[in-house]
């Protein structure tokens, strides 16, 4: 260690968004944008406030390869390297940490993130991983670094998993959720390559200074395919004043023009959400923004306040056109509520993005067609279709394990459907069926004259920026990234 036993000022901690094993293929639809890693930026702010030297390397945003990351670690040899891990990244991360341990064996490797929270027992077995962090990391990682530095008993650090001197896996008590989110400092955005982040092409305008904001943690709903509640618990909200202070900082310090609220449900508490919207106007915060709404939660008063506060898009997880599937996955709304909510949002003159899925267990060609038919019926500005992936920590994942339907999709399916994790072996559908209906969905929705006219009249710049590349992918199976 670089620091003395009672001093953390010399400790160096690198925080890493891992690189992809290979660059995206030309036929992948790269419309998802590049978002800053807020989790690492929050963690960096806490560590820096406690005199720990921190650097963040966002390998995805900065286009760093695995070799680039290894070169940095070999040259710098930090005391700790913390890596955030999504399920689709775990294999690449395992290869990376094996290389890091060879070139810098003294660096402690700490893994965290959604995949680690649920799969820590499987991950910690890897001899190259020193610690796994479950749940929120701000308090846990700080206490871990302090305990390692002072050589105190690691068993008292809540929320970590490690191997003892006999190589036995030790799973410490789970840490309680942070109750007062206002106590956490704002993300250390000055440590991020802020100029590289961009909103999804369907949301922010190309080239405008962009970032994301997290105003809440957790969710009150328990959808079958989502692990959010299992990981973060019920929703906790920052105070309206605290969020407004951050937005002011973004406007004044970073010149941000567009913000995506990445909360899974920013507006579930109507009183809080309206106060936030009114506060933006009162403080003169001239930032455009988008957020996720929820079917059955929105009302006219809330939507009008959002419009007045520069909301430029509401994103709805509509998911399926089959009421039977919606009921099974515990979405807690009806098809009619979907129609009503979309109409209400359109009446408020806020653009709408609809999220849809295909490939759930029990799906048939008939239910796939129901989803296509519903999408065509709705007046949405943007749509995104995803193939269902069973992630750890979800009821869907447990169902798939119990019914032995977890599988790996073939390369053709991965290339066309952009699925980067486990697939589901469907009883009534083949991979070719999914591919055909995936393309049919986009053909049926986007090639309607009414939709083309809507986009040309309401979003001409985005049609010019995005349309030709998308059509080339749709007709030729090739995607040109900008």
Key phrases:
482 residues, 7-stranded mixed β-sheet, TIM Barrel, alpha/beta, 3 domains, globular, disordered N terminus
As a whole number of angstroms, the C-alpha radius of gyration is 23 Å
CATH 2nd-level architecture of the largest domain: Alpha-Beta Barrel
CATH superfamily of the largest domain: Aldolase class I
Q: How many beta-strand elements? A: 17
CA-CA gap between termini: 44 Å
Instruction: Provide the residue-averaged pLDDT.
Output: 90
The poorly predicted ranges are: 1-6, 23-30, 478-482
Tally the structural domains.
3
Instruction: Give the neighbour order of strands across the main sheet.
Output: 2-1-3-4-5-6-7
**Helicity range:** 25-40%
SS strand fraction: 15-25%
Overall structural class, as computed from helix and strand content, comes to alpha/beta
Summarize the structure in words:
The chain has about 475 residues and is an alpha/beta fold. The chain folds into 3 domains: about 10-170, Rossmann fold (3-Layer(aba) Sandwich); about 200-445, Alpha-Beta Barrel (TIM Barrel), CATH 3.20.20; about 445-480, no CATH class. It is built from 17 helices and 17 strands. The strands form 4 sheets. Strands 2-1-3-4-5-6-7 form a 7-stranded mixed beta sheet, with helices on both faces. A 6-stranded parallel beta sheet has the order 8-11-12-13-14-15.
In short:
A seven-stranded mixed beta sheet has the order 2-1-3-4-5-6-7, sandwiched between helices. Strands 8-11-12-13-14-15 form a six-stranded parallel beta sheet. The chain has a two-stranded antiparallel sheet with strand order 9-10.
């Amino acid at each position: 260690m670089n620091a003395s036993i009672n001093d953390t000022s010399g400790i160096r901690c690198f925080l890493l968004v891992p690189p992809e094993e290979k660059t995206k293929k030309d036929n992948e639809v790269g419309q998802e944008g590049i978002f800053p890693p807020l989790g690492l930026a929050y963690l960096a702010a806490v560590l820096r406030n406690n005199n720990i030297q921190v650097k963040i390397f966002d390998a995805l945003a900065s286009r760093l390869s695995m070799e680039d990351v290894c070169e940095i670690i070999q040259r710098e040899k930090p005391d700790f390297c913390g890596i955030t891990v999504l399920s689709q990244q775990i294999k690449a991360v395992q290869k990376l940490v094996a290389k890091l341990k060879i070139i810098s064996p003294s660096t402690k490797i700490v893994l965290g993130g959604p995949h680690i929270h649920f799969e820590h027992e499987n991950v910690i077995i890897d001899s190259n991983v020193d610690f796994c962090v479950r749940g929120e990391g701000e308090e846990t990682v700080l206490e871990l670094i302090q305990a390692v530095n002072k050589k105190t008993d690691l068993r008292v650090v809540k929320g970590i998993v490690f191997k003892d001197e006999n190589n036995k896996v030790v799973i410490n008590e789970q840490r309680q959720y942070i109750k007062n989110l206002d106590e956490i400092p704002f993300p250390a955005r000055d440590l991020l390559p802020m100029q590289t982040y961009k909103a999804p092409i369907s949301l922010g305008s190309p080239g405008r200074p962009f970032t994301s904001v997290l105003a809440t943690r957790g969710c009150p709903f328990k959808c079958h395919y989502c692990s959010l509640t299992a990981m973060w618990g019920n929703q906790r909200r920052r105070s309206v004043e605290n969020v407004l202070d951050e937005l002011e900082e973004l406007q004044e310090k970073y010149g941000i023009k567009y913000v995506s609220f990445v909360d899974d449900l920013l507006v579930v508490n109507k009183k809080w959400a309206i106060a936030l919207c009114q506060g933006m106007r009162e403080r003169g915060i001239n930032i455009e923004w988008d957020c996720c709404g929820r079917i059955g939660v929105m009302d006219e008063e809330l939507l009008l306040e959002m419009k007045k506060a520069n909301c430029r898009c509401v994103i709805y997880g509509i998911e399926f056109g089959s009421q039977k599937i919606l009921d099974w996955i515990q979405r807690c709304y009806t098809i009619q509520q979907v129609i009503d909510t979309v109409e209400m949002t359109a009446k408020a003159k806020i653009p709408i993005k609809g999220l849809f899925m295909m490939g759930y267990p029990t799906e048939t060609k008939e239910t796939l067609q129901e989803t296509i038919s519903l999408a065509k019926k709705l007046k949405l500005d943007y749509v995104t279709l995803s193939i269902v992936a069973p992630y750890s920590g979800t009821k869907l994942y447990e169902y798939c394990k119990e019914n032995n339907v977890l599988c790996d999709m073939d390369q053709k399916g991965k290339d066309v459907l952009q699925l980067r994790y486990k697939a589901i072996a469907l009883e009534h559908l083949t991979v070719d069926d999914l591919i055909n209906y995936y393309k049919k969905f986009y053909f049926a929705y986007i090639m309607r004259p009414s939709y083309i006219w809507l986009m040309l009249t309401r979003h001409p710049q985005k049609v010019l920026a995005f349309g030709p590349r998308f059509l080339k992918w749709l007709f030729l199976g090739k995607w040109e990234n900008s």
